[in-house]
């Protein structure tokens, strides 16, 4: 606590300091070092700001609560993703577009594997963080669903399709991402996520447009029991050919 | 607060009283009356026990927290559902079984429409209850996923399929149930849930077992351009028939 008041005095100085890692990054780094050393519950915001050498006000300028420092990039990612979906046009196949949006989340994790793995372990241990993560996941799912509802407007059961597909995309993405996190960030998360999303696309994807049907004039199909006498088969062919 | 200490004195007496609605029901009824009158945040556990005429200890005997009184039946329902899935055999098609398990949750809502609609409105207004509900939904989804993972063990991408299908079932169920709750419990929730689950089954259901293929001896199929001369068609049939 005494270190906290000492740190408070340095608040403004840090706010204007340049040439070293941004204060926000320093706070995240300090927080995770303490979470890993002492445990999440045992670490206070005062401890974090003392280690980072900044004041409490600086912490709360960036993070509304201690939980938020564990997920420092999701607000930005949600905003990016929402903007990405809002920038979609009619030319984008809706499900493929949502899968691309999910890949933005994946990249948030894969651009810093060590941090992502640390956070995954932490989140598994702390029920409060698990609840926080569920609310983050829910917000991604709603962003997907809102986009799809817009694209499916006017279709029968449009909101149902939108909600189900959004949930399936999130579940597939998270299945692949969590496997990667459990393996300590080894292997190619991108391949795994692609395969997982491919499964959803195979279940819900629009069927590829059918090749133009051959015109009925082109082909005669005769199905006949092999035991049928040849004359019957020929008669059938003749009568079919004669039909126009 | 004074009413709370008065109520505490009645704790043991109420615990053994018979012949009126069970104390648990009385606590739920009192809680909802106050939540609707004053708002959820403005109602304390002391207020609830005072109105119900019981003591604090009675409340906490049934409900670990104020949030739990809002969802008084989910623990039982989760237990019932887990038991239902655990009692499944190889004869149950896994996806159909999970859909039946989801219907158990629906019935929890439809057996008391007025209460369910009240709670739906309350949950929409109170962020803390929304978070609680997300964690309940997550537990249902995990129960479905665990069951499906068991059934899909050994299949390629078994856990992926299990997680995605579990999420899709939950989303479909909730889409239909929420429509029903938004319409103040009018109409047939059961039909809506059936249709929603039917959509998931159409996306992920096992294809019906193919009818036994006709033995190759039975049928000859000839595909021919309609423009082909008849003699070429007959020649083709003859050579096919001669092939064994």
UniProtKB/TrEMBL annotation, chains A, B:
<feature type="region of interest" description="Disordered">
    <location>
        <begin position="1"/>
        <end position="21"/>
    </location>
</feature>
<dbReference type="GO" id="GO:0000976">
    <property type="term" value="F:transcription cis-regulatory region binding"/>
</dbReference>
<protein>
    <submittedName>
        <fullName>TetR family transcriptional regulator</fullName>
    </submittedName>
</protein>
<dbReference type="Pfam" id="PF00440">
    <property type="entry name" value="TetR_N"/>
</dbReference>
<dbReference type="InterPro" id="IPR001647">
    <property type="entry name" value="HTH_TetR"/>
</dbReference>
<feature type="DNA-binding region" description="H-T-H motif">
    <location>
        <begin position="44"/>
        <end position="63"/>
    </location>
</feature>
<dbReference type="InterPro" id="IPR009057">
    <property type="entry name" value="Homeodomain-like_sf"/>
</dbReference>
<dbReference type="GO" id="GO:0003700">
    <property type="term" value="F:DNA-binding transcription factor activity"/>
</dbReference>
<dbReference type="InterPro" id="IPR041347">
    <property type="entry name" value="MftR_C"/>
</dbReference>
<feature type="domain" description="HTH tetR-type">
    <location>
        <begin position="21"/>
        <end position="81"/>
    </location>
</feature>
<dbReference type="Pfam" id="PF17754">
    <property type="entry name" value="TetR_C_14"/>
</dbReference>
<dbReference type="InterPro" id="IPR023772">
    <property type="entry name" value="DNA-bd_HTH_TetR-type_CS"/>
</dbReference>
<keyword id="KW-0238">DNA-binding</keyword>
<dbReference type="InterPro" id="IPR050109">
    <property type="entry name" value="HTH-type_TetR-like_transc_reg"/>
</dbReference>
